[in-house]
Design a protein that fits this description.
single chain; 144 residues; alpha+beta; 2 domains; 6 helices; 4 strands; 44% helix
C-alpha cells in the first residue's frame, strides 16, 4: 500500500475502512512497507486529534495503528503486534513469523505456556494460552 492511499483512508472517516486498514496493517509482514508507513506517525497523530472522543470506533482503530507504527518507527519489528492483539502462536509459526522453542501444557487447567522467538529480531515471548469464554485466548509477554 502506498502511503498516500493509507492516509486517504484515514482521512475519509469511514469507520469500516479504517477498521479494515488497522486489521490489515497488523497482518503485514514486509518490514520495508511497515518502515515506510511508520514515517507517517506524525500525520496520523494529527488525524486522530481531528476526531472527537465520541467517534470511538475510529479513534480505537487509529490508536491501534499508532501503537503498532510508533515502535516500528523507532527500529522496532513486526512482532510489536503481539503486544496489541491476541494471535495463536501455532498459526504465527505456520506463517513463518515466529519459532516455537518450548511448550508446557497443563491438562487439568487447559492452559499452555509456549516459549516463542521472532524469526526477524530474535525477541522472545511467553505465550499463555487458555480458555476464555467462547474460544482460546493468547496473552503474549516479552521476556527478552
Amino acid at each position: 500500500m502506498k502511503p498516500e492511499e493509507f492516509i486517504e483512508i484515514l482521512k475519509s472517516g469511514e469507520v469500516r475502512e479504517i477498521s479494515d486498514l488497522s486489521y490489515n496493517l497488523l497482518h503485514l509482514t514486509d518490514m520495508s512497507t511497515l518502515k515506510r508507513l511508520s514515517k507517517l506517525v506524525n500525520e496520523i497523530e494529527t488525524i486522530v486529534e481531528g476526531y472527537n472522543q465520541f467517534e470511538n470506533e475510529k479513534v480505537i482503530s487509529l490508536k491501534r495503528i499508532l501503537s503498532f507504527l510508533i515502535p516500528i518507527s523507532n527500529n522496532g519489528c513486526r512482532c510489536e503486534k503481539y503486544s496489541i492483539c491476541s494471535y495463536p502462536s501455532f498459526s504465527e509459526q505456520k506463517k513463518g513469523l515466529i519459532r516455537i522453542l518450548a511448550e508446557n501444557h497443563d491438562i487439568k487447567t487447559f492452559q499452555s505456556n509456549i516459549l516463542c522467538e521472532c524469526v526477524l529480531c530474535k525477541r522472545r515471548f511467553n505465550v499463555c494460552e487458555y480458555e476464555a469464554g467462547f474460544g482460546r485466548r493468547f496473552d503474549w509477554k516479552i521476556i527478552i
